[in-house]
Amino acid sequence: MRAGTEPVLRDLFSSAEATDDGATDRIPLASGAVLIRGLAVPHAASLMAGLQGVLDAAPLRHMVTPGGFRMSVAMSNCGTRGWVSDAGGYRYDAVDPERGHAWPAMPESFLQVARHAAEVAGYPGFVPDACLIGRYEPGARLTLHQDRDEEDLGRPIVSMSLGLPAVFLFGGLERSIKVARVPLNHGDVVIWGGPARLRYHGVSTLADGWHPLTGRSRFNLSFRRAG
Ligand code: MD3
Ligand code: FE
Predict the structure, then answer these.
(1) d(CA 158, CA 126)
(2) 199 Cβ below 6 A of ligand 1
(3) Looking at the chain, which terminus has fewer C-beta neighbours within 10 angstroms, N or C?
(4) How far is the CA of 116 from the centre of ligand 1 (A)?
């Protein structure tokens, strides 16, 4: 058990020493938001193998916002629904509009790690139908936004970071509220539910670097139940 704030700060700002079966140390970020340092580290190779298969079928692309801006983060999806943005707005679509085909199936490794993470965070029985994949290269960033295109906002989002580290920006329920900066490292998993589900969030401009598993990039896998 933890006493005082010092160990929490150490956990927040250093990488976990992940054990063989994955770290299960739960670090509360806010009411409803839990960070589990290194949980995906033992699964990183199988996640990357699954990711390669998905991206071979549905290549990464820079979507355009309804306002006409090209996103610096390259994205794709797997699962029975995928998140898309274009001039018409944001939506979940069963079909990849770039290819006119269904999104690739969610790899078994994705489902298992996501379900395990949700369970550790207190959300048993999480079965995502969509995984939004984001690839950040140095210079890419994600501006402050809310995720509110899902049917039932009572269900959590599970997000996993792979590769280069990033600084996650965690705001409040209104855009004007000052953000907290949380470093996210390779293998970190965050579960966002309850009152944290509608908080504004984003990612700072990615710094240059190189990671043995992902090269000059960071991947974010964010699992949702869209419908
Ligand atoms: C907080 N991705 O996919 S992960 C996103 O790191 C997204 O690429 C960022 O924002 C990334 O929508 C942040 C963490 C994340 C994902 C979904 C959230 C944080 C969230 C939904 C609600 C609140
Ligand atoms: Fe988001």
Answers:
(1) 9
(2) yes
(3) N
(4) 18
